[in-house]
Amino acid sequence: MGKKYEIVEKVNRAWAGAIVKPDNAPSATNKIPLQSLALDHVYGYRTRDTRDNLFALNSDTIVYHAASVGIVHNIKTGIQRFFNGSHADDILCLTCHPNKRYIATGDIVSINSEGPCVAVWDAAAPESAPLVLFKIGDGKIMRNVSCMGFSCDGKYLIAITGDNYHSVRIYDWKAKTLLCTEKGHSDKILDIENHPSDPNSFVTVGVKHIKFWKFDSATKRFTTKKGLFGKAKIQTILCPLYIGKGDILLTGTYGGEIYIWNTKTGEAVGILNSGHSSIYGITYNPQFGLACGHRDGFITLYDVNESNGKMKKITEVNVGLSVKSLDYTPDGNLIVGTAESVIFMIRNFSKSNPHTNIELLFENHSAAKMEELWGLDGNPNNENEFVTCSDDGAVIVWDTEKYKQKRRINIQNEKLRAVSFSPDGKKLFVGSVSGNIYILNTSDLSVIKTIPYEKRSFIKSNEHDITVIKCSPDGGRFAAGNRDCVINIYSANSYKRVGTLTGHSSTVVHLDWSVDSKYIQSDSSDCEILYWNAVDLVQVTKLDELKSVRWFTWSLILGWPVQGIWEDGWGNSTINAVARDKREKLIATADDTSQVRLFSYPVALDKQPCRKYTGHSSHVTNVIFLGNKYVISTGGMDASIFQWKIVE
């Protein structure tokens, strides 16, 4: 969960005195917009704090989750379908029914104590209402649903919760009936595996423990048996896997070994050293073999004797990123999910004729280290192209029609927070947390120029983040606002600083240029609106001078056309971003309640009606219009990009 918090602060309208109603202002309207938004694509995959959450439903379709959305993704066409609207916050775990059609997703408790909830839904019709949806216990106690598994006959759903006892709960999920619950373990449970032939048996593993469970459907009670490590080192068990009829269990360990267990006695009867680091993911198909995914990026393939668990190593391949999830397609292709939110496919990764050709299915911004995603802009000359940048150091140019990256660069040792296209779309201006600015060639993302942060005597702040950067409409200059409370103006050709606008008393958050490139308007984190003559580089204090000014964009969260965007109980910092479409018919907002909202332009009336859209699970950090086709929004710590189609 990101910056979200309970909204209690009231809107302070001290800025109302700085509002300038333009000449020939459009009439205020109290009508909901005729246009609407439809979720078209999600660029994201959650792996920061979850594993075993990527499944192949058939040869062409995979299922996974990002933010609070379940995603059914066709790997041939890139087309996605969505399970959205049932989870109030981050989906933390996902599991697949034996029929390879029903999906269960579990979430974390929201800031408003909604949830945690479990939803079971149909991957063939994810847009439909869930088959079942139920809350699990008191949200303040349970905290989350950390992992789940269906019984082999599909009747039961076992869920592990995030309470102090890591409780184990078994449901007759179709009846939404809790059959039994019991304390799981004092240490965290990390994964669950259901027995392949006994629907009443399963195993849980976690921090330095393993436990075998049996549910008595007559007495509605569990019996449990602790695993006996014997000669094996007692260590954290990360992932379990039954083979054959279930007499043998294999587990991946933190140390990188595979432990072999006799499930009847609960004893460890064998150890295989993989030669690699922690085993985070494991999958098995009798026809293709046993694949183990390691923290060091290697995937090892074994042939397994199902009668005794003995293994023979066939091959290995290095995907270069920490592996968190694995699953085979019916035709022997291995789907690989990584901690960095990248999904690969290894074709024909089979023990009989193993291939090690790695195919990148898609790559996203990473949130593996709690990185946030803020930077976003659309190409003014191509409504099918936009750019993002993130704390992960990546600048990515995206293709909205092909649903994938066109170009990517990683700027080492930098967290990136702001980005802007030049008016001709040929350059990118990128601002970093360090205060450095990078000018890139859009065509290949090569670095044209680096402008290092310049410490000046009047700057007192120790934080120099570039929070907003925008090029003037005439292409001659660009402006960068930062935590130093100043706006620096640079030549877009020589890249030299030509002036500094001082006057804000807090972080500059948003800015816009006038159509003629002569004026700038800006707002700050303390809700101050200031106006500037960008030619003379002075503050404009006579507001009448601004009535005839037309603003090329509108991104300020304060001002005459957006004064009604706050809801009751919201504070000045609840809204993170605003965008106006080029036709000046619509306003989109991004806020801390995980919503994207769509208004008719202007939003000059209190409680003006709007359309609301959910799916993000973190604070929505930015939003833009791409021509008249799309709205793009970014989630801060869900690190996901949502592509919304504008429906006329």
TrEMBL record:
SMART domains: WD40 (SM00320). The keyword Repeat applies. This is WD40 repeat-like protein. It holds the Pfam family HELP. Residues 80-344 form the EML-like first beta-propeller domain. Residues 373-646 form the EML-like second beta-propeller domain. InterPro entries: Beta-prop_EML-like_2nd (IPR055442), Beta-prop_EML_1st (IPR055439), HELP (IPR005108), WD40/YVTN_repeat-like_dom_sf (IPR015943), WD40_repeat_dom_sf (IPR036322), WD40_rpt (IPR001680), WD_repeat_EMAP (IPR050630). It comes from the Eukaryota. GO terms for molecular function: microtubule binding. WD repeats lie at residues 501-533, 613-648. Gene3D superfamilies: YVTN repeat-like/Quinoprotein amine dehydrogenase.
